[in-house]
Amino acid sequence: MVEKKKEGEMKVTPWEVSGDIDYDRIIKKFGVEKISDNLLDRIQKHTKDLHFMLKRKVFFAHRDLKFILDEYEKGNKFFLYTGCGPSGPIHLGHLTTWIFTKWLQDKFNVELWFQFTDDEKFLFKNKSYEEIQKWMYENMLDVIALGFDPKKTHFIIDTQHANLIYPQALRVSKKISFSMVRAAFGLKEDSNIGSIFYTSMQAVPAFLPSILKKKNIPCLIPHAIDQDPHFRLTRDILPKLGYYKPASIQDSFLPPLSGVKGKMSSTEANVAILTTDSPKEVERKIRKYAFSGGRDTLEEHRKHGGNPDIDVSFQYLRMLFEPDDKKLAKIEKDYRCGKLLSGELKEILIKKINTFLSHHQKERVKAKNKVDKFILKI
Ligand code: TRP
């Protein structure tokens, strides 16, 4: 039977996320595993505290995390690998993954390899090469502003480090057929031929450090769940080339201001908060667009309370801006019982975001002098 795509139906691929996202279905469909309490305990043994994104299941799934911890406990340290496709401004949704990645880097004291896929965005977006280069520079400032350690963080740029990456991508691509890529990514006969090759470039950082250091090093990839099809393929290929399968840990999407079921995207500027937004813009966007789980009238809200589960402002606090569990629980309780109003909840969030952004924007300016320190030199 042919399945028809219904209104609001979920679609999650590296290049399109749409519809109502159902994470339990994703877990089944992609074949990733939920992060068990036992694994959380094992992480906590090394990190002392548990990041709130783990406790609150913002990072909700993984592949082979147990292997990473087993090896780590044997003294075989892993490295982290994540990346950014530079095609526009950075928004809060991008930051979720990177903030957690920095926590992992600090707690486990490991290297991070950070890939900028300017080739990918040139191939998949209707933008010029020059425009992509401009966004890449801007995006680097945001990554650096988060405070990664330049001594342990290496930026690799697909076009600029082509001499290093391309020979390895070739080895990967020789093991992948067109039909595998077509199935994994939904590419079509008329897709451009660069896009068919592309996934081999994204596979490379998962084993490049092993090549450079001439020994196999386990790799852990923190990433948003839409990138999983790439790494499913990478995991099939790398053992054939003599390397470990990379492990991964996946987070859910920070929703757009318009509702909790989608993914924030910078192509819809009104429902995304950009890292360069002014305090006034943040105020305007949250007040005007942040979907509220509150009641229609003050009276009704006081009587029946609001619903934090569908309230975007509450969800931003839960996923990103209120690390303190007690404070979050109090906000939730007060909102549910009607003591806290939707407008008041929005003001709490606006303050949090603007405090964060004022610091981030200062660091972003300072980052201009640091870019060179981060770019890998070989
Ligand atoms: N393809 C990713 C994007 O579009 C960028 C990326 C490259 C990436 N390597 C990665 C993301 C590893 C997460 C992990 O943004």
3D structure, described in words:
With 378 residues, the protein is an alpha/beta fold. The chain contains 19 helices and nine strands. The chain has helices spanning 23-30, 37-47, 52-55, 65-73, 92-108, 118-124, 129-145, 162-173, 178-185, 193-197, 199-203, 208-212, 228-241, 279-289, 298-304, 312-321, 325-336, 342-367, 371-374, and strands spanning 11-13, 16-18, 33-34, 59-63, 79-84, 112-116, 153-157, 219-224, 247-251. A seven-stranded mixed β-sheet has the order 3-4-9-8-5-6-7, sandwiched between helices. Helix 14 (279-289) packs antiparallel against helix 18. The radius of gyration is 21 Å and the shape is globular. The mean pLDDT is 95. The protein binds tryptophan. Tryptophan (TRP) binds at residues 14, 81-85, 115, 117, 120, 202, 221, 223, 227. Tryptophan binds at residues 14, 81-85, 115, 117, 120, 202, 221, 223, 227.
